[in-house]
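Much of our argument rests on the idea that a fold can be written as discrete symbols. Part of our work consisted of pairing the sequence of a single chain with a tokenised description of its backbone. No coordinates are needed to read the tokens, only the vocabulary itself. The record that follows shows the chain in one-letter code together with its fold in token form.
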Amino acid sequence: MKIGVLFPGYGSQYIGMAKELYDDSRIIQEYFEEASQCLDTNFVKLCFASSDTELSRPDHAYTALFLVSSALYAVLKSQGVTPWRIAGYNQGEFSAIHAASGFTFPDGLYLLSKYATLYGQLLSTHDANGIRVCGVPFEPLNSLCQKISKPDRLVHIALQNLPQEHIVMGHPAAIELVRERVIEYSDAEIFDADVELGLHAPCMEPVVAGLKTYSEKVDFKDLSIPLVTNAQAALVTEGSDVKIGLMQQIESMVRWSDSMAQFSEADLIIEVGPGSHLTALAKKIYPDKLCISLNTNEDFNELARLLQPLETQQEL
């Protein structure tokens, strides 16, 4: 059976994520304890009893999402589920790498903490806004961004969610021009997007340079499960390629739609982590596939019900 596993990134966090499973699972409790010790942060309070504003800070959200996704995957793994291949959306790539034994849990927390700090420093001196554009294909939207973009008001596609859904990041004035001109497309819909998702452009080079220094302290191992990278939408297993791809995705467009093309042969797609954003995207790409997100005990029960007929079918 071919099982694809996806890990969410920034924007999927919410207060109370995995609380029900935390109460019932010693595995998840141990992950919270280890994370709290590694970063000297009370993750129980942060995830279950803080505020949306507090949790949404990159230095909190990046590591909290990594913690919850890693803990949920540990439960999934304990139930004997072995992915055929994996991918992580945006910062979720860190969770995917850890799930495939690419680096340790403490090292993932360490790198994400440094990433968030470096990115926060960049944003303090870099004026940027973001919008999500739906109903416009990549080529015309990209062409529009290139026409509007100037040295003092850069704008670009940062994340490609679906063939006609993209996150555009850039200077506030340029973003407003994109917003004004995109509405000329009859099917276009525009929504605000958080810059905390990442700018995914060459301007992120200082963040990458700083993170590369910290990454030298991390042992990137060969993967036990093939990973589909964000930057190239390519399958990798060697530790050196994983490290390169992780740095590339920070300053390159996230090619999620292209990455999902690597899951065309999957029998089942599982989103492991808070929310169901990636599950919704997967269902749009593959409306006939079984897709499920894991957030509660009932989700795990539903997964068990889904796996049983699939296993029987494979035996036949």
About this structure: The first strand starts at residue 3 and ends at 7.
